[in-house]
């Protein structure tokens, strides 16, 4: 009788211990996944900004740029969306574009 009750206590202890370990492991995994998703979204936004900058450096026809609400168009083609703020100004032979997405802002100096 003592042996079976001891085994039962061991099984209960093991189940409780494994439940605690599983809960902490699951919470850690969810936290890491959220952090990876945020990092992915930020890097994707940076990549979109950089590719837009390279496109504009190559095509240099800034008259075709149009900003409406939260979208930036080149001619009629969408370059970027979800833009928070956008400003284009000209100083001498430089075009200065100040652009912000959700949590990333950049200032570009492009030659005309």
The count of DSSP E runs of length 2 or more, i.e. the number of strands, is 6
Largest sheet: 3 strands, antiparallel
Which range best describes the helical content: under 10%, 10-25%, 25-40%, 40-55%, 55-70% or over 70%?
40-55%
The pLDDT mean sits at 90
Taken from the alpha-carbon principal axes, the silhouette is rod-shaped
What would you report as the Rg, rounded to the nearest angstrom? 27 Å
Poorly predicted segments: none
Largest sheet: spatial strand order: 1-2-3
Class derived from helix and strand content: alpha+beta
Keywords:
112 residues; alpha+beta; 3-stranded antiparallel β-sheet; 1 helix
Question: What is the element layout, followed by pairings?
Answer:
Blueprint: H1 2-59, E1 65-68, E2 71-74, E3 77-81, E4 85-91, E5 94-100, E6 105-111
Antiparallel strand pairs: 1-2, 2-3, 4-5, 5-6
Question: Care to describe what's here?
Answer:
By secondary structure, the chain is of the alpha+beta class. It has one domain. It is 52% helix and 30% strand. It contains 1 helix and 6 strands, in the order αββββββ. The strands form 2 sheets. A 3-stranded antiparallel beta sheet has the order 1-2-3, with helices on one face. A 3-stranded antiparallel beta sheet has the order 4-5-6, covered by helices on one side. The protein is rod-shaped.
């Amino acid at each position: 009788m003592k042996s079976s009750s001891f085994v039962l206590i061991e099984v209960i202890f093991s189940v409780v211990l494994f439940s605690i370990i599983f809960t902490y492991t699951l919470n850690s995994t969810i936290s890491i996944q959220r952090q990876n998703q945020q990092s992915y979204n930020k890097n994707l936004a940076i990549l979109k900004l950089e590719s837009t900058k390279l496109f504009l450096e190559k095509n240099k026809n800034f008259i075709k740029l149009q900003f409406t609400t939260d979208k930036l168009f080149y001619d009629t083609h969408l370059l970027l969306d979800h833009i928070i703020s956008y400003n284009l100004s000209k100083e001498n032979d430089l075009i200065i574009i100040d652009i912000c997405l959700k949590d990333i802002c950049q200032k570009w100096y492009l030659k005309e």
